[in-house]
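Incident log, structure service

09:12 report received: a user says their structure output differs between two submissions of the same chain.
09:20 pulled the input from the user's history:
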Amino acid sequence: MILPIYAYGQPVLKKMGADIAPDYPELKELIENMWETMYNAEGVGLAAPQIGRSIRLFVVDTIQIMEKGKESEGIKQAFINAYKVEEAGELWTYEEGCLSIPEVRGDVDRLPQLRLRYLDENFTEQEKVFSGINARVIQHEYDHIDGVLFIDHLKPIKKRMVRRKLDNIKKGKASVEYKMKFAVGR
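09:34 re-ran on a clean worker, output below:
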């Protein structure tokens, strides 16, 4: 089932997500719905707060954005109760966008390597190192479960430049090709 994506201005996007247990209600169905919602919106990641759930769950599929012949370097997986262990490398600037903040993009500096501890869909504990675009997409989605948005990382001048667009999104004035739940009705 395709779920509405919560737009900038929704309080759930600024909340710290809670850990979940294996008996979380209908978890398997929730993850399947997140995949379907993400692909419908042409995203590469989706975090539970973006569908109105303040929990530590996100899905990532970077296989679809890898260069032809390098698809095997991408990842497709769900992350439950993820926590950063370590980030390393030299800051790397890359233009990011977000399904919850349509029509806004901006350069974000992130470290290119991430060690993450998380549970997989079987609630088996994992600890892995991710790098490059895989790390970046995970860091972006991880920020969501901590109540942080990519715009929080923008330089002050860029934040001022996008303020009007952000205000419009808060007011429900954004055009998207997927279901969205705005903080204010249209």
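09:41 both user submissions now match this output. Likely a transient worker issue. Closing.
09:42 reviewer note: The radius of gyration is 16 Å. Residues 62 and 140 are 13 Å apart (CA to CA).
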